[in-house]
Each structure stands twice: as structure tokens, then as C-alpha cells.
Amino acid sequence: MKNEIEAEEKDIHEIYIRKIFARNLKKIRGDRHMSQMDLASVAEISTNFVSEIENEKKWPSIETLAKLVKALGVEPYDLFSPEIMLKTNKAEMLKTKLSGLITTVVNESIDQNAIYVSETGKDKSKT
Question: Which pLDDT score, from 0 to 100, does residue 13 have?
């Protein structure tokens, strides 16, 4: 039983590390305005392999990790830092919230215009 729990904990840690690595690789690549093809070319690996790493399907060797670090101009720990991943998640959350607020404001404006049109017969948006 103890070995099963330890194995599960190991799997959870491995999944978490892979997730951090994949998200950080994608974020840092994006921050550098590099496509997957650009990064693959500079790191001398396949574009497909970059995609598989970013989608947590494959894991790079130490040699490939060194190539990625060099191509991105970062330190190895940058690819494993939870802080970078968390900043990405916060930015995505803010973007989603902002998009939702804008949609709400636009929809309310449309609704108010529809009410105005029904009451007055005039369209505010055309004045």
C-alpha cells in the first residue's frame, strides 16, 4: 500500500513538472515572438517535437533541454519555474474576465438601444 501511494505521488509530481515545463516553454517562446518552427530551427530539433513537448506528450533529453535553453536565451530553471506558469495563468484569467466584461457591456448597450427603439421608434446607434 505504501509503495502504491509513493508511486501515485511520484506520478503527480512528474505530471506537475511536465505541465510547468510545457507551459513555460510555450510562454517564453511566445515572449520571444518565436513560432514553434523558429524555435525548432534554432534548437536544431523538429517542429513536431517542440509541439509534442508543449502539449506534454514528449519529454526532452538533457541534450535537447540544453538546446532549448540556448535557443531561448534562458537559464534551465526558467523552464521549471512555477512562477512563470502562474503569471501566464493570471494573464489568461484577466484576459478572459476582460473579454467577458466587454461582451456584457456591448450586449447591455444593444439591449438598451433595442428598448429605446421600441419606445421611440428611433435607433440611437444611427445618431
Answer: 79
In three-state form (DSSP H/G/I as H, E/B as E, the rest C), the secondary structure along the chain is CHHHHHHHHHHHHHHHHHHHHHHHHHHHHHHCCCCHHHHHHHHCCCHHHHHHHHCCCCCCCHHHHHHHHHHHCCCHHHHHCHHHHHHHHHHHHHHHHHHHHHHHHHHHHHHHHHHHHHHHCCCHHHC
Residue type for position 106 = V
State pLDDT tens for residues 44-91: 999 999 999 999 999 999 999 999 999 999 999 899 888 766 565 566
- How far apart CA 75 and CA 69 sit, in angstroms, is 6
Question: pTM of the entire structure?
Answer: 0.61
Residue 120 phi, psi (nearest 5): -115, -20
The pair phi, psi for residue 35, each rounded to 5°, is -80, 170
Which CATH fold topology does 1-80 show?
Answer: 434 Repressor (Amino-terminal Domain) (1.10.260)
* Residue from 7, 35, 21 nearest 88 by CA: 21
The domain locations on the chain are: 1-80, 82-127
